[in-house]
């Protein structure tokens, strides 16, 4: 999911930036609660409780920026929820890297994670290995619309229940029940029945249907 920043206010003196990565979670616990495995940070809150950062796969990051010294956080890539069709298509023009890698490239689009990339490519019927710059305008527009739908949906579900979020273990997130390809390797495609395939692109597991994604 997206990186979050704790201070919008430009008059703030510091920012604490949380990148959840793939499996990162922030938990609020009583100070005497057992510390679960993969807890990388414990921060005492003014209430006496603790804010704990748990991240089994360690893709996440906590970052403190002193704004007297450092520049503030701004995502380098475009915002996928608000980018228009024209600007979205322009991001990929002339690029030879695969569309899957391009979607995950945070300097192009901010905050598109592995699940959302695989699921949006499936819904748009686009093979993940295709060169980003070779996709037609119609394909890119389909992809943009599917990506927006998925991100909106995920945010809505994730935002609806804090306890679900706290309990999530990364593989069993709120979005899991609706995965059509992600982590479904070998299972039948929900559209055509072919086995879902898994390949690795840019070091990331990539799940797709060889038949639906031509
Ligand atoms: Zn299929």
Report on this model:
The protein has 214 residues and is an alpha+beta fold. It folds into 2 domains: 4-66, N-terminal domain of MutM-like DNA repair proteins (Alpha-Beta Barrel); 85-208, Helicase, Ruva Protein, domain 3, CATH 1.10.8.50. The protein has 5 helices and 8 strands. The protein has helices spanning 85-92, 99-104, 114-124, 137-160, 162-167, and strands at 4-5, 14-19, 25-29, 39-44, 50-54, 61-66, 197-201, 204-208. The strands form 3 sheets. The protein has a 3-stranded antiparallel sheet, with no helix packed on it. The structure holds zinc ion (ZN).
Entry keywords:
214 residues, binds zinc ion, 2 domains, 3-stranded antiparallel beta sheet, disordered N terminus, 8 strands
CATH third-level topology of the largest domain = Helicase, Ruva Protein, domain 3
Give the percentage of residues in beta strands.
15-25%
Query: What would CATH call the architecture of the largest domain?
Result: Orthogonal Bundle
Distance between the termini: 28 Å
User: Which overall shape is indicated by the principal axes computed on the Cα atoms?
Assistant: globular
Helix content: 25-40%
